[in-house]
Design a protein that fits this description.
This protein is α/β, with parallel strands linked by helices and about 190 residues long. It has a single domain, classed as Hexapeptide repeat proteins (UDP N-Acetylglucosamine Acyltransferase, domain 1, 3 Solenoid). It contains 4 helices and 19 strands. The strands form 4 sheets. Strands 2-5-8-13-16-18-19 form a 7-stranded mixed sheet, with no helix packed on it. The chain has a 5-stranded parallel sheet with strand order 1-4-7-12-15, with no helix packed on it. Helix 2 packs antiparallel against helix 3. The radius of gyration is 17 Å and the shape is globular. The termini are far apart.
Length: about 190
């Protein structure tokens, strides 16, 4: 089994694997070209996002700067807007529905590590091997959601449809459809 297959299964994987590093470097190159384009050159910017992401719907708008690990593990539905300084750590899949608003400084994490340092750190890694254990779990955001600025979504979380996540929230568990959540950790405060 390849390290990429382990990554997508949620198993521990070596983030310094050559295939994964090549995906990482490819994403960084595309993002550099994308950020270098004028905001007036929407067609060329969208073409580069199509190369970067696994799937992107029509009329998706992503503001610069934007950061991701691999890009290919990201799927964004049509009419979605991603504001400035978004960080999508797409070590596993990040699936975002259509008509989603993602505020500034939103962070979506799929990667995680063992909490105990003795379990997390590899005392004698092989040459070119990462010195720590990493695994990743997918994140899914349903259609018609609004993720407020400075919110953080943790690995393995699924957010239902028509959900509003208040600014500054820390989403640590699954959220059902049609609710407003806020806080750290985010809690349901209202049915919409």
């Amino acid at each position: 089994m390849t390290e990429k297959e382990k990554l997508l299964r949620g198993d521990f994987y070596d983030s310094r694997d050559p295939e994964l590093l090549e995906m990482y470097h490819r994403a960084k190159s595309i993002l550099k070209d994308w950020e270098g384009l004028s905001s007036r050159d929407g067609g060329a910017k969208f073409d580069l996002l199509q190369k970067l992401f696994g799937n992107i719907g029509n009329k998706v708008w992503v503001e610069a700067p934007f950061y991701c690990d691999y890009g290919k593990n990201i799927s964004i539905g049509e009419n979605t807007f991603v504001n400035v300084n978004a960080v999508f750590l797409d070590c596993n899949t990040i699936t975002i529905g259509k008509n989603v608003l993602i505020g500034p400084n939103v962070q979506i994490y799929t990667a995680t590590h063992p909490l105990n340092a003795r379990e997390r750190i590899i005392s004698q890694p092989k040459p070119n091997q990462a010195p720590y254990l990493t695994q990743a779990f997918p994140v899914k955001i349903g259609d018609n959601c609004w993720i407020g600025g400075n919110s953080v979504i943790l690995p393995g979380v699924e957010i239902g449809e028509n959900v509003t996540v208040a600014a500054g929230s820390l989403v640590t568990k699954n959220i059902p459809d049609n609710v407003l959540v806020m806080g750290a950790p985010a809690k349901i405060v209202k049915t919409l």
